[in-house]
């Protein structure tokens, strides 16, 4: 899965991508599923 596809899934809260990857905020240690309704992550957010 390409980084751009992952970022789009996060921005669009794509439930179909849950379980395929997650994203995290390094300084808080919070991990989120793509479907999680949250603030838009910064461009530097790592998507695993």
Automatic annotation (TrEMBL):
Taxonomy, superkingdom: Bacteria
Key word ATP-binding present: no
Residue ranges of domain Ada DNA repair metal-binding in the record: 6-44
The keyword Transmembrane belongs to this UniProt entry's keyword annotation: no
InterPro entries: Ada-like_dom_sf (IPR035451), Ada_DNA_repair_Zn-bd (IPR004026)
Name of this protein: Ada DNA repair metal-binding domain-containing protein
Keywords annotated in UniProt: Activator
């Amino acid at each position: 899965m390409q980084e751009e596809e992952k970022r789009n899934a996060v921005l669009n809260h794509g439930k179909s991508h849950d379980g395929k990857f997650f994203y995290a905020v390094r300084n808080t240690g919070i991990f989120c599923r793509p479907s999680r309704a949250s603030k838009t992550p910064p461009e530097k957010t790592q998507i695993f």
